[in-house]
Write a structure and sequence with these properties.
This protein has 324 residues and is α+β, with helices and mostly antiparallel strands. The N and C termini lie far apart (47 Å). The protein is 21% helix and 39% strand. The protein has helices at residues 29-40, 78-92, 177-187, 227-240, 308-323, and strands at residues 2-10, 13-19, 50-55, 62-68, 73-74, 96-101, 104-110, 120-128, 147-148, 157-162, 166-171, 199-207, 210-217, 221-223, 249-253, 256-263, 271-278, 280-288, 299-306. It contains five helices and 19 strands. 45% of the residues are buried.
């Protein structure tokens, strides 16, 4: 069968978006994971950090399933849901839609003045929890805020939180990509504290309303950006008192910039965040697959339409981010 897809990205975090409302895929769960691995391979596949499946939902306008490049399914994806949300907004010609994800329903809306020519959306990020069991994390205290983990680093102070993906984030004066990759591999290499692995971020406050975040993403590795990691790191920086709760924070990353707002709830209620950023469609394609086999190798990948205007607009936006 011919499988249409959209190559898209949020802050350089790139995905293949597959609209199962238009082209249903009757796949076993095993073959869905194998398809993802084959599609995401950058040597012989199409190449991406993950695959977004746009599916019908009973209690929302659409459902998102997000799979990482290694074939594992994630709870949520802040960069990916903006791309899938855009598709849903366009499909229904609405200003706001509701998207069902693994842990609830999130509201997506247009952000029409983000940057000239850059299509952008804002999504809710929730629930955000400081309870280590929600990651899960093997930790005896009710929270882990600003703690040194000697098995990962002798001096970095990590905060653990789910958003709702599992995250640990530490403040640094200087971001060292090699050190981040080292820590990320340790934390995701059958580490006793993190039985299911964890996303690892280093953050540097750059002004009273801005932050730079670098992330080693579980199931992906070093990535240009991770939406839930930027939200989690913003929340952690607000817990430190370095940034204010309830105000939009400019969060820079290797792929561009987003706006994150950390929303701290009263005791007993659910913390949340808002994440606004680009939802860029780069090109439309199709690939021939056989749903009954291992789906590897893929056959006849065709690039059907380039969206050059969107690519150029995002390049201008990224250049403006780098200039700050």
């Amino acid at each position: 069968m011919l499988l249409p897809f959209i190559k898209c990205h949020g802050s350089g975090n790139d995905f293949l978006l597959i609209d199962e409302m238009t082209t249903p895929l009757e796949l076993t769960e095993e073959n869905r994971s194998r398809l993802v691995v084959a599609l995401c391979r950058r040597d012989g596949g199409i190449g991406a950090d993950g695959v977004l499946f746009h599916q019908p939902a009973e209690n929302a306008d659409a459902r998102m399933r997000i799979f990482n490049a290694d074939g594992s399914e994630a709870r949520m994806c802040g960069n990916g849901i903006r791309c899938l949300g855009r598709l849903t907004l366009e499909k229904y010609a609405r200003d706001t839609v509701n998207i069902a994800v693994m842990q609830g329903i999130l509201r997506i809306r247009w952000v029409k003045d983000f940057f000239p020519g850059v299509v952008a959306c804002e999504t809710e990020i929730k629930p955000i929890s400081l309870n280590p069991t929600t990651l899960p994390m093997v930790w005896e205290k009710p929270q882990m805020v600003g703690e040194i983990l000697p098995s990962l680093s002798a001096n970095l102070r990590f905060t653990a939180l789910s958003a709702p993906n599992p995250h640990i984030s530490a403040p640094v004066d200087t971001l060292d990509r090699d050190d981040l990759i080292r820590i990320g591999r340790l934390a995701n290499g059958a580490h006793p504290l993190f039985p299911d692995g964890v996303n690892v971020s280093l953050r540097r406050v750059t002004s009273a309303d801005s932050l730079f975040v670098a992330t080693y993403e579980r199931g992906v590795g070093w990535t240009h950006s991770c939406g839930t990691a930027m939200t989690a790191s913003t929340f952690a920086a607000c817990l430190d008192g370095a940034l204010p709760f309830g105000q939009p924070i400019r969060v820079f990353n290797a792929g561009g910039q987003v706006l994150c707002t950390a929303l701290r709830a009263p005791e007993g209620e659910v913390h949340a965040g808002l994440l606004a950023g680009n939802a860029t469609f780069e090109w439309d394609g199709e690939v021939e697959i056989d749903p009954s086999d291992a789906l590897n190798p893929l056959r006849h990948v065709r690039r059907m339409r380039d969206r050059d205007d969107e690519i150029r607009a995002y390049d201008r936006f990224k250049a403006a981010c780098n200039a700050e």
